[in-house]
Here is the input.
Amino acid sequence: MYTIVKYILLFFVAFLSLVSCKQEQGNKIQVGFSQAMTTDDWRKQMNSSMKIEASLRPEVNLTISDANNTIQKQIDDIEKFISNRVDVIIVSPIQSKPLTAVVEKSIKAGIPVLVVDRKIEGENYTAYLGADNIEIGRIAARYIISHSKGSGKIIEIMGAKGSSPAHERSIGFNQFVSENKRFDVVNVIQGDWEKESVKKPLKAVLLENPDIEYIFAHNDRMGLSAWETAKTLGLEKKIKFIGVDGLNTVNGGIELVKSGVLDGTILYPTGGNEALKLALKMYNKETIAKTNILNTIVIDKNNAEIIENQMDKVDQQQEVIESQQGAINLQEKEYASQNNLVRLLSFFLMIILSLTVYSIYSTISIARKKKLLEKFNLTVIEQNNEIQEMAKIAERSNEAKLNFFTGLSHEFKTPITLIMSYVESLIENEKIKGTKLIDEIKLIHKNSNRLLRLINQLLDFRKIEEQKFTLRASKAKIYDFTNEVMKNFKGEATRRNIDFQLVCKNKSLELFIDLGLMDKVYFNLLSNAFKFTPDNGKISISITENQDNTVKISFKDSGIGIPENELHNVFSPFFRASNNNKNSSGIGLHLSKEFVLLHHGKIELKSKQGSEFVVTLLKGNSHLQPSEIINTAENPYLTPNLILDNLDIESDLNDVDSISESEKHSLLLIEDNIDLVHFLRSKLSNEYVVHTSDGSDAIEKATEIVPDIIICDINLVDKDGYEISKVLKKDLRSSHIPIIILTAQSNKESVLKGLQSGVDQYLTKPFSFSILKQSISSLLFNREKLRYYYTNNIYRIEPESRFGNQEQSFITKMNDIIQLNIEDPKFSVEDLADKLGVSRVQLYRKVKAIIGINISDHINNVKLEKAAELLKANEMNISEIAYSLGFSSPNYFSTAFKNKFGISPKEYKSSN
Here is the structure.
């Protein structure tokens, strides 16, 4: 009985509250305001004044909708007001023309419309309220004219195109300025009321017209932006700035005037309270003017503080009003609640007798329903527990994936590089080859390769998850490919006495496959087969052609198999069968399936006696996209992906014969891994003078020592390798230096980014030391070829050279400077370095690296080439030529000339 009464009581409280609320809303005047102000401060001030005015009028229910400066949203908001049949609509248009139609629709629907701040096109609205924007423009012009003491040149920064305030302010401003011939608006910049629209065009205008006296911006934000732009040019004190708005906020017009940023601002009143008053008059059908203008004034240093104090007092009074209104609303709610309670108690007294009679009848029924409800609640609780358990399982699964990849990065390859490099050195060491240690060292090498393959497999999984794999299929004989992969497992088969066979009737059968991806599929399937097949077992691969234009490749073993109820999970990531007690990452089969799907094929599993995986591939290439096909492969059985992802550390690590320090090339190694630095320095120091940097001073060291070649990592302590390479290749002092990127990042995006930054070679870790050595030698050899070209064509460099524009530009510029100063005997190497913008040492090293001789000899060679031309012309004697080219004496000139050309100047002149 108590429960029934309680539920009835709660129901009628809610019902009466709803009825009371509906009645209260139904009796109120519904006013809808579509707000278009884009500035937070303006919007807050406008909304605040309107809300306070509404709070003083209990009969008004004000709804404010913010269009967020989106025209379509504002149209939708007004359409919603019309469909809700509000009594009055107040609208502040974003733009004039787009809002005209929907305002006319409201008028036709019998809903009066008050347009505030900005007008619409035409006169089909009830009334307009806002500042006189034409008068604001005139006030700004009058202020400038009355206060001007300078050039009279003015820049006008307009508001958004299509906005009526911007158009009208410009009209008023130009009307008044044009009446005074001393003043001239030299430029009008079209802004969009925001700061960023001003800076770039204004900077260009100020650079052309630095004697501007005034800048008139259509609002204070653009005025502040204009001041900041002028400040970057050092003109902020020479130019005076006038804005519009005069808001009393942080960075508002009043604060900008007080701080001296603006010379003045014209107050642009929001008129929120006046708007609501006019709306009520329109509702009451009182006579009002079609156009209602808000008053405005100029705010400058003379009155800024006074107006600020007045506005602060108004804000304080508004806060007090809001506080009092809140208290009134609370009391109204309490009154309404008490009134509802009285109504409820009266109603309750009327029905209590009926409930008493009904309670006896309903007790039994309620008891039955209670049991059903308890049973239902128990079911819901059980289902909820199941859902929570499933959510926990999903969360654990996701957490497992996240933890699986936590800490995984390409930098894993750096320590593997060191391990494998030193192991290779030990394997090649003659003292160890004949000892028992060689087997243990080879075991380390084998497991290091295994670890590397596992890491690459994890990275492949990540790429599959992020859909970054691109198929690169080429035609291959599937029998030869399969046989080549099997060679890697035949040693294991022999050791464990496993019958390992390949069955294929058509050995010439060709398929389009991505050799790298299919190699990984084979490796995963064969690794599993050998892992779970006991000694003396059997593993076979059979290749069968089908009549439906497909080829089936079957991998069958006599191993432990997989439980039948778990077969559907085999290709899921991280899955391990219940009978699998061996270590496994659980992603090999998942990757295999994804790689086969990339080939538009399928992979299936049968498991009765052992396991049989069947890969089905399509013949031909019609099922592939053109971008998925490559024409040739460098090596049919060693895939490009494997070369990129897993360059084995090779031999050829023996020490070479020592080279004298003077004959060694210099090498700068930019790497922050100390162990790798130590390894490379020990291996390269016999042939090169090795300098090192951890990346923090890489650019400075490179420009200081100007090495012959640079080896650089990507992930460094300060700048990354891409940035360092880009800077060095753009710097004239270091642009000729070959750069090798040596990194663990082997994906296509990283390689492409490296090449775009100007590097000459991109090698990935783990790297082949012999390939690294050969890369260094090849780049230096190419540099020697370039040097030979410049040496033999030093005075005939073409405007466009295929050997590199930066070196060509440097040589051309250097020769031009020498030619211009060829007759100056005081012209020195220091003078040349100064004109080229480099130090004497850097110039010496740069020239030595490019043309192979020192700069002094080069200057003499240029002079002697010029002397040869003058001797051919036969217009000057030998002494005149010697002194005109800055030689100290004719004898010294004759000696230098004979050393270069093999004959004396006199003999040369006679022969020509």
DSSP finds 30 helices and 24 strands in the chain.
